[in-house]
UniProtKB/TrEMBL annotation:
InterPro entries in the cross-refs: 6-hairpin_glycosidase_sf (IPR008928), 6hp_glycosidase-like_sf (IPR012341), Bac_rhamnosid6H (IPR035396)
Keywords: Plasmid
Keyword Chloroplast in annotation: no
Organism name: Catenovulum adriaticum
Protein name: Esterase
Domain Alpha-L-rhamnosidase six-hairpin glycosidase: 393-505
A Pfam family matched in the record: Bac_rhamnosid6H
Superkingdom of the source species: Bacteria
TM segment ranges: none
């Protein structure tokens, strides 16, 4: 049933799509009526933009008359969001508040949605239960814009699959979460020159409005598999076919180059994502793309490198070469880098490309890669390295939708996310530093080789010291932010897996991780425990590329049960969805899970077919996992990892399985594996018995490039597995149920009252039930483990400073919430910009929020705050009070990134470093920057602020359509003052958060 939407009548004057709200009340009725008779004029194109088209401009509204515009879009299952907007988002039409609209087959929206126009209007959300083509009509009724919607029955959904050869047909039958059978069937329609064309059908309802079948063919230019299983061979052919579809000559994104195509022989990110994104590309290249097309990988990696824009000199305090060539951090939280710092994942892709490229191309790329990596890691060292913890700050890698895996309050407090530290991103920093050391060694830059090796060694040690939670047998995914810094009992599969495959985790830790990380009936979730009240995307989800890294980790740690779970996840997903999907709901393995009772929790919210890193995940599973082919430092390794469960499912009807037409550095390779791959009741992994290259027996499974000829056949003989005992942590639950065994509690908040005797803490928690207790933390250390009540008195609180946070714990499962926002007993003081201590070239402007230096931060702008008196020696945090409204809080490239200097009365610099002032929401008012903590002796000090740089300074962002793009770099914000707050006694060394 459609909602009845009540709204205050609007008078609408349309001229170039600018709508003016006149007001409400009887006295304005005549004025409304006069304006409603105004001629409607639309002077710029409008687009239907939403989650169904990546908020792009692929659905222009076509003019039917002056008062009516129509477009049609394909909508799949799920909850979709939309707005009507211009290309540059300057004009946005939606609702004053979010409404949920439900569609059913052959029905239309009976009540139109009345839209308003402003940049803060909320999107409309639609629960679509039947995929198909939908018609959207924008029209004016009595001068007010409304939207009408209806479903059109599409002929393409009624298409029938072509008939395959009944002699070459196979079915895979799976069980749904509710014990119903789901079938994927595969047949061969023809076979020419040994190549096949497959017809692939499914009974599972598909997310996208497409037929329930797909047809794809093998290609003589790429590898093929022959396993005795039509289904297994077909699914590999599907991955290769989707790899080809993701290989493009032009890329595009609505936020760049005005949405126009950009020439690039690159990989696009998926069917719904037509651009090259750093982390997606890097992980996909590392998983398998580099082996199949190293030159296209190189092109794509180079596209993500950029120096400073023309006319931009290297900033005074920045590190690296004059060109500034470095890896781009894509648009993101609070204005991107260094709130997000996982641009260093680029090193995973670069390492893979270097291993695969031919000598000349490799030599050229290696030099460029070294310069870019050196500039990147040197500037990250300045911008986000914490000398006290030995770790890098910033958002988790790929888990970049804040509410999905962080505390709810973090979404509006991105300085706390910037100062927190995450496992996955720090492992990526380790990979980048280690690769830079290897390349420096090749280039005979001995000083840098030693420097980077030492950095990598220290970082590995810090990761193990700070993140490892021995009582859980897992690495923590992330720490809390500044003034807290505790490693929380939150876990993610990518971070655990990367720690294993990079060697950060030793053998004992690797085995514990593989045995302890929770798996559901359909596979491993990307995070655990799940977030309550959050829709499916990263939360409550399986991501195939993360599963592939879990498989790589399982092979390194030799846990066949975890490997079997990964094999089943990847094969099932591709088989039932006719594609390598972006993500799946964790407990149902569906590409969309509809929660009718709570539609806003449905998901995955976004999901694309042939997602690049999912395609790479499947290729990796077959090539590196099952056939064991991998390249490292110029050597080809071949060590299959075939479990008895996998063999029993697919390989028992043949004497051997074969991967053919593989190419490495111009040399063709065929890998043929002989059994026995017979039905075996033993659980485990088949062992390597013998390996031959072109008929010659080898002593081990590592082959030098010089041993290969133009055409090569590697013959591998396996023997039955020895009995193995391997553990896996299985968690059974039903989707859509808020099960404490699966979910974490909501995070509480707290309030403090300081007395002469100590500090009274009151916990505010109105979301969790009775089955919770509380942990209390002070100054980054846990004080209380399981407090049953909501108040506590701290009689040992230090007088100098006490900063508290709390977390809720489910008593039954022990799962912990995120930490609350930190509350400190000593608030310090603020020196406002109108104080005589402050001098700047910018004039003071009075605002509703107080006196400010408006739009401060151009390279020539100055700010000096002098005569800062410190009466008691100790540690102090310096934070700027500010607002940054350059762009939305969840995206952009205009994070404020500046260089702070602290000098004593003798003008000696006693501390300096980067301070961040990320985007803020207008509704939230004033915010505080990331803190710089410094130990100060009693005396008087001067603080000054100088230019550093952000991602808008780089050439690749000069076509970005929003702030910091086409109109030039932007690193500006409104400054209101400097906060000086004590954080601890002077007996500890200073550090920067």
């Amino acid at each position: 049933m459609s909602p009845v939407i009540k709204f205050c009548p609007m008078a609408v004057v349309i001229s170039g799509l600018m709508l003016g709200t006149v007001g409400c009340g009887p006295e304005l009725k005549q004025k409304h009526e006069e304006q409603n008779r105004t001629q409607i004029k639309v002077s710029e194109p409008l687009y239907l933009r939403g989650s169904f088209n990546s908020w792009g401009t692929t659905a222009p509204l076509k003019k039917v008359s002056d008062k009516q515009y129509i477009t049609q879009v394909d909508l799949g299952l799920g909850v979709h969001s939309f707005k009507i907007a211009s290309q540059d988002w300057a004009s946005q039409w939606a609702l004053d508040s979010i409404k949920m609209v439900e569609f059913e087959l052959s029905k239309k929206l009976e009540q139109p949605l009345a839209l308003t126009q402003n940049s803060t209007s909320k999107e409309v959300r639609m629960l679509v239960e039947q995929p198909g083509e939908y018609e959207f009509t924008l029209k004016w009724q009595k001068g007010s814009p409304v939207v009408m919607l209806k479903r059109i029955v599409s002929e393409k959904l009624a298409q029938q699959a072509p008939l395959g050869d009944p002699e070459q047909t196979q079915k895979l039958i799976y069980q749904s979460y509710d014990k119903q059978p789901l079938t994927a069937s595969f047949s061969v329609t023809d076979e020419q020159n040994g190549l096949r064309t497959y017809v692939h059908q499914t009974t599972q309802k598909l997310r996208d409005p497409v037929p329930q079948f797909s047809v794809y063919a093998e290609d003589e230019a790429f590898p093929q598999v022959r396993s005795g299983s039509i289904a297994f061979d077909a699914l590999f052919a599907l991955a290769v076919d989707e790899f080809k579809l993701d290989s493009v000559e032009k890329i595009r994104d609505s936020s760049y180059n005005k949405g126009q195509a950009i020439d690039c022989a690159c990989f696009e990110t998926g069917e719904k994502w037509h651009y090259v994104w750093t982390r997606d590309l890097a992980y996909a290249a590392h998983l398998g793309l580099a082996l199949l097309d190293p030159e296209r990988v190189k092109n794509s990696l180079e596209f993500k490198l950029s120096g400073y824009r023309e006319g931009i000199d290297k900033p005074k305090y920045a590190a690296g070469s004059m060109s500034g060539l470095q890896v781009i951090q894509d648009t993101g939280s609070g204005g991107s880098w260094p709130i997000s710092t996982d641009r260093v994942t680029w090193a995973f892709g670069a390492d893979a490309a270097i291993n695969m490229l031919s000598s000349d191309s490799r030599r050229e790329f290696s030099g460029q890669a070294f310069e870019a990596l050196a500039n990147t890691i040197e500037n990250d060292r300045l911008a986000t390295y914490n000398a006290q913890t030995g770790l890098y700050g910033g958002e988790q890698s790929f888990l970049d939708w804040r509410e999905q895996s962080y505390a709810a309050w973090i979404a509006d407090d991105l300085t706390s996310m910037a100062s927190s530290q995450s496992l996955s991103t720090n492992v990526a920093h380790y990979q980048a530093i280690r690769l830079a050391a290897d390349l420096a060694d090749e280039l005979k830059q001995n000083e840098l080789t030693n420097k980077y090796k030492n950095w990598a060694k220290a970082l590995k040690q810090a990761i193990n010291e700070r993140f490892w939670l021995a009582e859980k047998g897992l690495y923590s995914s992330l720490t809390a932010g500044h003034f807290d810094t505790v490693a929380m009992a939150k876990f993610d599969w990518l971070g655990q897996s990367l720690a294993i495959i990079t060697g950060i985790a030793d053998k004992q830790k690797a085995q514990q991780i593989l045995a302890n990380y929770p798996h559901g009936p359909m596979g491993a979730p990307v995070i655990f425990p799940q977030q309550s009240g959050i829709p499916v995307y990263h939360n409550r989800a399986i991501w195939p590329f993360v599963t592939a890294y879990g498989l790589k980790a399982a092979i390194v740690g030799d846990n066949y049960r975890v490997a079997d779970a990964a094999y089943q996840t990847l094969i099932r997903s591709a088989a039932l969805n006719l594609s390598n999907m972006e993500n799946l709901e964790w407990l149902s393995a569906q590409s969309v899970w509809l929660e009718k009772a709570n539609p806003e929790l449905s998901g995955p919210v976004i999901n694309s077919k042939r997602q690049l890193w999912s395609v790479a995940a499947y290729l990796n599973m077959v090539v590196e996992g099952i056939f064991g082919v991998q390249v490292n430092k110029g050597k080809l390794g071949v060590k299959p990892y075939i479990t008895t469960e996998l063999a029993n499912q697919f390989f028992t009807d043949t004497k051997n399985i074969e991967l053919s037409n593989l190419t490495w550095r111009g040399k063709k390779i065929t890998v043929n594996i002989e059994g026995p791959l017979t039905k075996d009741n033993k659980q485990g992994v088949y062992q390597l018995a013998e390996i031959k290259l072109n008929g010659q027996q080898l002593d081990n499974s590592v082959i030098e490039e010089g041993q290969l000829t133009k055409q090569n056949k590697i013959l591998i003989k396996l023997m039955a597995p020895a009995h193995q005992v391997r553990e896996i942590n299985l968690v059974d639950s039903m989707p859509g149920v808020n099960d404490p065994n699966v979910f974490a509690p909501y995070e509480p908040t707290l309030s403090l009252i300081s007395t002469d005797a100590g500090v009274k803490i009151t916990i505010i928690d109105d979301k969790n039930g009775a089955d919770v207790s509380y942990q209390i933390f002070r100054n980054g250390e846990q004080l209380i483990d399981a407090l049953p009540q909501k108040s506590w008195f701290d009689a040992t609180a230090p007088e100098y400073q006490a900063c508290y946070s709390v977390a809720a714990i489910y008593n039954r499962s022990g799962h912990a919430s995120h930490h609350s926002p930190v509350v400190c007993t000593q608030q310090g003081y603020v020196i406002t910009v109108e104080n005589q201590q402050v001098s700047s070239n910018k004039p003071i402007v009075k605002t509703d929020l107080g006196a400010s230096l408006k739009n401060w931060g151009a390279p020539e702008d100055s700010l000096i705050i002098k005569d800062i008196e410190v009466e008691q020696s100790g540690k102090y945090a310096l934070q700027f009070k500010y607002t940054n409204h350059q762009h939305d809080i969840n995206t952009g490239i205009t994070n404020g990134v500046k260089w702070l200097r602290v000098m004593d009365n003798n003008k000696q610099v006693i501390h300096e470093g980067v301070v961040q002032l990320p985007h803020t929401k207008v509704a939230n008012g004033l915010a505080y920057s990331t803190p710089v903590e410094v130990t100060l002796a009693q005396g008087t000090y001067v603080v000054s602020l100088h230019d550093f740089y952000n991602m808008s300074y780089l050439t690749n962002n000069q076509t970005y359509i929003a702030a910091g793009g086409t109109n030039g770099p932007v690193n500006q914000f409104d400054l209101y003052g400097l906060k000086v707050m004590p954080t601890g006694s002077a007996d500890t060394s200073s550090h920067q958060y």
